[in-house]
Hints:
A hairpin with a 3-residue loop joins strand 1 and strand 2.
Amino acid sequence: MDEANPHDIIVGIDTHKHTHAAVAVTGLGARVGELTIRVGLEGYRELEVWARSLGAVRAFGIEGTGAYGAGLARFLRATGHTVHEAGRPDRGRRHRHGKTDHLDAEGAARAVLGGQATASPKPAQVRWR
């Protein structure tokens, strides 16, 4: 990520079928909050309001933008946010050092902050009959 402002907020999200875990970090990498939302429009709105309440949102890093996070990625992009695909963490390392959804979400935020998550999610596929 190019020249992040120390006050910028970067939100990482670990996606699952029924809930998503989110962690926000500053442009300096300080963890400032965590949230768990239910999947769906109401939860997506709750996440966006929460993120904006923390400061100027620079970007969202989402694990699984092509699967469980696809709807969230579409919602955030439609509301004008920058969204990056954050790769899944190393499973072996996660299980050896403990795994929680919020730690995975924090890893997604740090991947955006560190410039490892720069890919944008693929646009939604439109199915024509």
